[in-house]
Structures are given as C-alpha cells and as structure tokens.
Amino acid sequence: DAGVIQSPRHEVTEMGQEVTLRCKPISGHNSLFWYRQTMMRGLELLIYFNNNVPIDDSGMPEDRFSAKMPNASFSTLKIQPSEPRDSAVYFCASSPRTSGINNEQFFGPGTRLTVL
Amino acid sequence: QKEVEQNSGPLSVPEGAIASLNCTYSDRGSQSFFWYRQYSGKSPELIMFIYSNGDKEDGRFTAQLNKASQYVSLLIRDSQPSDSATYLCAVNPGRGGYNKLIFGAGTRLAVHP
C-alpha cells in the first residue's frame, strides 16, 4: 500500500507569493497532521484533523497559514503571502486512529519550501 | 521547561556497541511514547512505541519507560554505521482523548566503524 503522498517535493517561490502544499494520507487512516521542521525549532505540529475535522490549529503561526481537508483522501496547507521565514520542510503525517495510546503516525516525504 | 527534552548530541559510539538515547517529559499524565529515526534529508520513520513501565524489545532496539521518573530511553544493541541518524522522542500527552504527538528536538547518533 502506498504511504503518505506529498506534493510538490520542492518548492521555490518569491516573497509575497501564495504557496499550496498537498497531502494524500494513507488509505483508511482517520487522522492527518501537518508539521514544519527547521533546524532552529525542530519538528512543530501546525494543525491536525480527525475524520476531516480540524481539532487543534494552535500551532499555526499566523493568519497567513490555512489548512483544509475537504475529504478523507486530500488535505492542503496554504501560505498566503509567503515570507522568507516560512522556509522549512513541511511534513504531512497520518494515523489510523483518532484516539488511544497506540496512535502511531506515518510521515510523508515532506515538501522543502524555500521563500526568496 | 520544554515538554519533551533530549540531548542534542552528537552521541558517538563505536560499531558493535550499545547506544543509549534518553528523553524526559514534563507532563506526568502522558500516556504513550514513540521513537522515530530520521536520516538526513528524509522523513521521520517509526521505530517503536511503549506505554507500560518497563522494557519493550524489538530486534536490536529496546525501549524503556519509567513513568515515575518521567523518562523514556531507547537502547540500540550492536550499533551499525547505518544506525547513524537523528532519533526523535515523541509523547502523546493523552489530554482530551486526542492523538497528537509532541516531539523532542532529537539526538544525533553517529556510529563509527
């Protein structure tokens, strides 16, 4: 079975442009997570969804960031307008369970975003 | 105090030795604990998880949990150069019955021949 799929794998854009990152979770998984990883701040949870419903968006840095999950097999993370400090690797992860203690998460390959 | 703390390393061990990676957490109500391995330029991959006090073994890996002391560790036996990576500790805080994980900053492990 395919793992978590993310696109694009690399994105280079200029400051002020809109950026849209895409994620397809593992089929049958009910939770989806968006993370950002930088050397300075490590792996940070931005937002997560259970059964397509946003549960916790407290990690979203500011209003420039938004995320949607219109159905169980697709999610987007949008940055508008983008800024150089948004440069990072963005990971999407999915989990088969929405609660419980053995809620392991499986990560996609990530999108490396560079904002010039 | 960070919620999940790890020594950033690098932890350098010779090939064939036991590597010991440690993690402490601040929320005493945390329920389950995960170890991920991340190679440079790659995504985190799950090694194992533990939720009961004591040891849990999986091949060359052993996770140890001590809830009273609020620490979890990962032992890698017979370390190989291919084990050289950053190891991330993640904690499920368990609040509200939801399933988010809080990650530590990771410990970089270097296994030298």
Verbal overview:
The complex is a heterodimer of chains A (116) and B (113). Helices cover 0% and strands 53% of the residues of chain A. By secondary structure, chain A is mostly beta strands. In chain A, strands 2, 4, 5, 6, 9, 10 and 11 form a 7-stranded mixed sheet that branches. In chain A, a hairpin with a 2-residue loop joins strand 7 and strand 8 (74-79). Chain A is globular, with a radius of gyration of 13 Å. Chain B has 113 residues and is mainly beta. Chain B is 0% helix and 53% strand. In chain B, the strands form 2 sheets. In chain B, strands 2, 4, 5, 9, 10 and 11 form a 6-stranded mixed sheet that branches. A 5-stranded antiparallel sheet of chain B has the order 1-3-8-7-6, with no helix packed on it. In chain B, strand 6 and strand 7 form a beta hairpin. Chain B starts with a strand and ends with a strand. Classes of the chains: A mainly beta (116), B mainly beta (113). Chains A and B meet through strand 5 and strand 10 of A and strand 5 and strand 10 of B.
As a percent range, the share of helical residues of chain A equals under 10%
The number of strands of chain B is 11
Radius of gyration of chain B: 14 Å
- Can you summarize the main beta sheet of chain B? 6 strands, mixed
Count of β-strands of chain A: 11
Order of helices and strands of chain A: EEEEEEEEEEE
Largest sheet of chain A: 7 strands, mixed
Query: What class do helices, strands and sheet pairing of chain B give?
Result: mainly beta
What share of residues of chain B is helical? under 10%
C-alpha end-to-end distance of chain B = 36 Å
Mass-distribution shape of chain B: globular
Strand content of chain B: over 45%
Strand and helix order of chain B: EEEEEEEEEEE
| Cα-based radius of gyration of chain A, to the nearest Å | 13 Å
Strand content of chain A: over 45%
Task: Summarize model confidence as the mean pLDDT of chain B.
Answer: 93
End-to-end C-alpha gap of chain A: 37 Å
